[in-house]
Amino acid sequence: MTQHNFSAGPAVLPVVVREKLSQALAPRTDGQPSIAEVSHRGPVFAAVAEELNERLRRLMGLVDDQHLLLLHGGANLQFAWLPMTVASGRIPAYLTSGYWGEKALAEARRIGPAEEVGSSKAIGFTDVPEMGHLPERCAYLHYTGNETIHGVQFERPPVAAVPLAADLSSEFLSRPYPYRELAFAYAGAQKNLGIPGLTVVVIRQDLLDRSPDTLPNYLDYRKWVNSNSMLNTPATLAWYTALETCRWIDSCGGLAFFQKRNRERAQRLYDVIDRSDFWSNPVAGHARSVINVPFFPADAKRSPDVVSKAESAGLLGLKGHRALGGLRASLYNALDNAAVEILIDFLGDYERRYG
Ligand code: PMP
């Protein structure tokens, strides 16, 4: 039986990327080392790094004063690293639309004062928040472009006269995005750009210039800019996988292709959920995520049964996050359209039998 992977991350890879990885790692009779076995400072890996930087900058449409960094540590490290670098006497502001935004704010508060200028917590994170007043001497406004657990997505960046900082983890490269409006952005590779171990960060020069000299070298973004993201050994296999993923995105027609496809199939899934008396999704229409679709059976206690029957039908990774329960379908670029159709059939079938 064909299996379909709806995991929120690490997530499904494009078939061609899996093929490239297996070719790249396959043992060779001539003993030639694979991409994962050569120096990150040698010519073979240098070519990977150069092309990856070039393709990512182009896909994102970055401008000259935006630095692209390829780092370790995931989005979680950026929750702390950003305020450590950029706050310096100013107050960071946070718009909170779900679990990850709350986590980012909590980390910022471990570094210094930070203000929550809007939250949709009171309505169970079923919408994007209204924005209140920004603090005077505001360091930046942070938002989570797409809340992976609550399934809440900003259609476009909030409007504010301060630098914008965006956690784009789960919507990275899922559509053309106005990256050039952002002073700071970050995303782990393990959703739409390959495998865990690589974190993409964009930092604009004016924020870079705020770096305090007291930080350890490793936590000084300037050192990463000056070393072309090679302050220490990079996650070479994750970089290589990211390069093959970028090539695949380009070969499919770029981000515009995925925007159209991702929107259409998410809409099909939401339509089925909305038409049903059994399945539901509580998020306001304009804020529904195109990427992560949480949904619930009428009787919440049924969720584990749905997950297990889905697994038996070859639909994997549908268990909702422990913070929210229910189910969640993650529809990353590499997921086949056929998988969404099979899920839709499964939901109809389950409702007919048990609804
Ligand atoms: N932010 C968002 C929106 C996420 O979806 C995730 C991971 N699911 C994280 C942050 C944490 O990412 P990481 O594991 O790379 O630290």
Mean pLDDT: 97
- CATH 4th-level superfamily of the largest domain: Type I PLP-dependent aspartate aminotransferase-like (Major domain)
Task: Identify the CATH class of the largest domain.
Answer: Alpha Beta
Approximate helicity band: 25-40%
CATH architecture of the largest domain: 3-Layer(aba) Sandwich
Largest sheet: 7 strands, mixed
Structural class call reads alpha/beta
Strand content: 15-25%
Give the SSE order as H and E letters: EHHEHEHEEEEEEEHHHHEEHEEH
Describe the overall structure:
By secondary structure, the protein is α/β, with parallel strands linked by helices. It folds into two domains: 16-252, Aspartate Aminotransferase, domain 2; 253-354, Aspartate Aminotransferase, domain 1, CATH 3.90.1150. Helices cover 37% and strands 17% of the residues. The chain is built from ten helices and 14 strands. Helix 4 links the parallel strand 3 (91-96) and strand 4. It is globular and about 65 Å long. The two termini are 26 Å apart. The mean pLDDT is 97.
Question: Gist?
Answer:
By secondary structure, the protein is an alpha/beta fold.
How does the SSE layout of this entry go?
Layout: E1 4-5, H1 15-25, H2 43-60, E2 66-71, H3 74-86, E3 91-96, H4 99-111, E4 115-119, E5 138-144, E6 146-147, E7 152-153, E8 164-167, E9 184-188, E10 199-204, H5 205-208, H6 221-226, H7 236-252, H8 254-275, E11 279-280, E12 292-297, H9 303-312, E13 315-316, E14 327-330, H10 337-354
Parallel strand pairs: 1-13, 3-4, 3-5, 5-8, 8-9
Antiparallel strand pairs: 2-10, 6-7, 9-10, 11-12, 12-14
The structure holds 4'-deoxy-4'-aminopyridoxal-5'-phosphate (PMP).
4'-deoxy-4'-aminopyridoxal-5'-phosphate binds next to helix 3.
